[in-house]
Amino acid sequence: MTDGDVAAFTRLGSTVRGALSERGFSTPTAPQQVAIPPLAAGQNTLVIAPTGSGKTETAMLPVFDDLVAGEGEGEGESEPRTARRPSSAETPDGGPPEGFGALYITPLRALNRDMLERLEWWGDYLDLEVDVRHGDTTDYQRSKQAEDPPDVLITTPETLQAMLTGERLREALQDVSHVVIDEVHELAASKRGAQLAIGLERLRDLAGEMQRIGLSATVGDPDEVAGFLTGGRPCEIREIDVGSNVDVDVRKPEITEEDEELAGKLMTEPDTASHVRLIRDLVAEHESTLIFVNTRQTAEAVGSRFKELDLPIGVHHGSLSKEARIDVEDRFKSGELDGLLCTSSMELGIDVGSVDHVIQYKSPRQVTRLLQRIGRAGHRQDEVSRGTIVTTRPDDTFEALSIARRAREGEVEPAAIHEGSLDVVANQVPGIVQSRGDTHLREAYDTVSRAYPFRNLREETFREVVSELDRNRIVWFDEGEDRIETTGGTWQYVYANLSMIPDEETYEVHDIASGGQIGTLDERFVVNFAEPGEVFVQRGEMWRISEIDDEEGRVKVSPIEDPAGEVPSWIGQEIPVPAAVAGEVGEIREVARPQFEAGADATAVGRELSNRYPADEYTLGEACEQLERQVESESPMPTAKRLVLERQGRTIVLNAPFGHTANETLGRVLSSLLGQRAGSSVGLETDPYRIELEVPTSIATSDVLEVLEGTDPDHVETIVELGLKNSDALAFRLAQVSAKFGALKRWQGQGSGRISNERLLAALEDTPMYEEAIREVFHEDLDAERASAVLEGIQSGEIDLVTHRGRTPVGQGGRSSGGKELLAPENADASVIETVRERLQNDRVILLCTHCKDWKVKTKVKRVRDQPECPECGSTRIASLNPWADEVVQAVRAEEKDEEQEKMTERAYRAASLVQSHGKQAVIAMAARGVGPHNAAQIINKLREDESAFYRDILSKEREYARTQSFWD
Q1: More confident call, 9 vs 828
Q2: Region labeled Disordered — which residues (predicted)?
Q3: In the chain, what are the helix, strand and coil shares in percent, each to the nearest 5?
């Protein structure tokens, strides 16, 4: 052991060095070598190092040392440390016990549990008490901690919020000298983090300056995250290169004879079976493997296939019950399970024992996520973390190659800090007043604006937020004296709003047979898809819905063997692909194009790419076949410098590799402006490489070119905001934001419970809540700046814009199916189709004669004759309408009509024409959700072999409507 090796440990006192020897720590790890010196000197420090490299001990050894030491004892210490004040047992007057010495804050309760196990040994050896406090802590433990605070308290951001308002706990917090924030990158990019940043400033008002320590495996912009950690105060950054410790292989499995056999067993396609087989083989080759997927939907789909093969692989994600998650964690740790299939629930270092390999199924979408996930493997010092990305199609492979290369080079995405979240300000003001009592507005503003995300918050905006809280009776604001005071509702608000995680309704899923809870389903899934008889996948098993209890918020289910089913449509599941990653996919295309034009084949081009990207010859060659077909079809190659606009029928695709948020923004501009021209809605779907529009026949390709070449780039944000004004997406965010202001309850109180989206948007348009909802949509989902830059590039000639008639191989590359391909193919969905048929037959419709306009009846679909006719006049021009469409009936019967009534009447006549031509079949199709006369005509006009195909097409249109509903407002 060299002097350089032990230099870090010599900065610690003899008591802690003795603990190191006892624990077997002879040589500092890389992060300990570089970070312990500034930490021991009391400096604010951000430590960035791979998972499993000893970051926790790096942070806590100097903290423990400071808590036990009097005068400095270690060699090389630049200055002595100050001893903490003695405990009550040692004070002559037996005064009050000392407070907390250090807080260790983690984003997950499960991490708290692991961290307590990890730090208790050190506490026992050093005679320091280490304890944990979060939402599950018992009242007895809470009371004990208030009376006799532990030296080190492990907690969550939300529990810190609660502690800041308790009188005795505030006294105990006055002694805090160190705060450690674990997984600081995760918090920096969220509203929870913005809330924590203010919480730390409130803590500083109590305890004075304290040492702040941030720990993270990946940070794309260390200076920004350091600013977040310290509130812009000086901070040392100590970083260990994460990419050099990661070995990633990208593989698209080649289909084998075994896959043909496996496909029959799994009732899926051979290509899909090859994914399952490769993952199975990789798990078998290693001792313990984490298999990461991007969505809970995919986790359930893949898990169901492993269960079908009876493989020892568990499923772990956030919608499973706590008991189910702990069970699979323990079984994996004990070796009973060889693999654990998980989502981001496992990214943050929950202790599941040793992991020697990580599989990522499909592109991880972001460099940060890949490094976090692959970093779970190889936890011994200086060991390389090894992993495999299993890809499924060309987009997926090229994206994974870009991310793997960027991970190796350390090109990590920046943390997207929420700048000036007004609902966070609204959340914190009541807490400040509840804990301090009457507070001058300027004092509260100073505390909030010291937090890094709020450094640019204007006092005028802060005043508007406080005024809104006053209107909602959350606080009382004396504008004359500029004083904020509590009201009768302040205390209740504070404790009901400790978290910035939105309150979203969930339904508990219970097995009828056992009565036990299996997991949860989001309300939106239950409302849109779930009905008695529907089948879905959860915990890797198939379940049939028996009953939905809206009052209790429960879905009762029974297990089935049928492998076909609707996979839960989880909320917020799409991980956005950054522009840099998508742009590199465009670069790969551009590099390949001239080689194909010169006569090279896919194998040769793939071999060339292998010099830069970590993949085998088959994987690269298979992905390059798509590009080879693009060149052979004489289609232009889309890149970030050449956009290709292709059209077939009503479908227009703009091939644009700019990532999710920029394409979503450009897509909204196109759909909004083209919709205005056509006077009707334009369907929109986007992925990182394409913007797909479903346009009326009146829209020409030249119209799309005109929008792209003629729209002022400075107007992008305004156009998108106008388009958002009546959307469900904005109303959903606005409801969440206004709840944090206490406004939603006030508006609901004026009506009869739930408030309509239209009323909510209209009522709150000129308020801080509307401003925040718009900011949040742009922050999370859109990129107006990059979309504007694309328009500027097109208009300046820097970006070529070319057109192509018909679809191209790259343009048809399409979106991922989110794991659904791992379930049975569509011809094996008999139970689902039968359920759809029964539901539609039992749906009610209004039949209206559009000839005499007198006859109207409301009836079930199954009671409608094969060819309906009016009993009054004998006409067969019978419109089939939704059962709540009385306003359409009124519009048809009105003698003088306004513009809206004219549209309703026209729609009714189109429906009547369809029923006259196709009878009951048209009535069935138009009874479906979101299927009007146009879509019904498309369904009916397809040639089919059987009735199941008819209902399958209806189901497809219903799913398309559910997926794109927010664009049809």
Answers
A1: 9
A2: 70-101
A3: 50, 15, 35
